[in-house]
Structure formats: C-alpha cells, structure tokens
C-alpha cells in the first residue's frame, strides 16, 4: 500500500522547499556587486539551501514516525470521528449519500449490527469501527477498495506533511534566527494547503468507507442470487 507515496509526497515537499527558499531566504535577492558582498551572499544562499534540505528531510522522515492512530486524530482535529466509526449510525439515519447502493439494502443487511449498537458514545464508536473493519477485511483485496484506500492514505499523508512543514518552519524561525526570514506568504500558502488537504482527506475517507459497504452489499446480493 505504500507505493502511493512515491511521487506526490516528494513533489509537494519539493514545492514547499522552493517556496521556502524563495520567500524565506536571500537566495533570490539581487547579487551585490562587490566581491565581499558576493562572498556573503554565497554563504547566505548555502545556509538557506542547507536549512531547506534539513526541514524537508525531517518532514519526510517524521511522517514515518507518526502512527496511523495519531494521523487519524490530527485529521479529525481530535474531535471529529473517523468515517468508519459512524458508518452504521449514518446508514440507520439514511445519511449516507452514495449512488452505488440503496439505504434500504444497507439497513436490511446490517440490521443486526444496527440493533445491537451500544448507547455510550465511546463504546458506540469502537463498536461501529470494529464491525466495519470486519467487513473491510473480507474484501480488502477488491480493486475498488484498494484504490479508494490508497487515495485516502495519500491525502492523509499530504495533510500530515503540510502540517509538519508549518510547525518546522515556525520552529526554524527561532532556531535559525537571521538565516530564516518570516513570510506571511508562506504561512498563508501552507495554511490554505492544510485546509485543502484536510477536506480532501475527509472526502476520500468517506469514499473509502462507503466503497467497502458498496462492495459488500453487491457481493452479498450476487451470492443470494445464485
């Protein structure tokens, strides 16, 4: 499942690094005329490139150190539940808008799960996600499920990568004071990307969860028709 990371994450990180060099270092400033100033600007440019490389490396390696559980919490801003934790509640309330299956079919197929849902919120979230995961485990090799899962994981990691770059940039302003300049343009660009990647992650997460349900209903109907 990790082949989804080979290009997009690296390309986004390169883009952030270039914006960092452009807006937060003197690398693209007008080169002074004197030899002494030339020497200083070369040193400044070298520092900027080195700092950018360090930040990018830390972000790329840092992604591997963050657990999937923490990533999901960050995506949900520590209060929005994952789609799999509410799927059967939404099915029972007919709140799942997906043209690949009918609410009636989903309610009928998962009636036992819906009827036995706990009343306490924490237990209910765990119960729904566990039952959804059991269904996912039965069909995880399905091509449609694998593709939507990759899309979700990619968006989630792009969000985490952007969030890490924001934090590391702010930290670098204090650690490399003088070599790294404050830039509202970079801050606003990164914050916009945080919002976009977060929304995209939730959209792809819901699509992934719904695809598991759609595949399960479709295959169940085919078995019943035989």
Summarize the structure.
With 226 residues, the chain is mostly helical.
Please render the helix and strand layout as text.
Layout: H1 8-24, H2 35-65, H3 68-75, H4 87-92, H5 103-109, H6 111-115, H7 121-139, H8 143-175, H9 184-225
Describe this protein with a few key phrases.
about 230 residues; mainly alpha; 9 helices
Polypeptide structure, described:
It is a single chain. With 226 residues, this protein is an all-alpha fold. About 3% of the residues have low confidence. It starts with 7 loop residues before the first helix and ends with a helix. It is built from 9 helices and no strands. It has one domain. 74% of the residues lie in helices and 0% in strands. Helix 8 runs antiparallel to helix 9.
Strand tally is 0
Reading the helices and strands in chain order gives HHHHHHHHH
Q: Helix count?
A: 9
What is the count of distinct domains?
1
Quaternary assembly: single chain
Shape: elongated
- Report the β-strand fraction as a percent range: under 5%
Low-confidence stretches: 30-36
Helix content: over 70%
Summing up helix and strand content along with how strands pair, one would put the structural category as mainly alpha
Mean pLDDT across all amino acids: 85
Q: Distance between termini?
A: 33 Å
Q: What profile does the largest beta sheet have? A: none
Using only C-alpha atoms, the radius of gyration works out to 23 Å
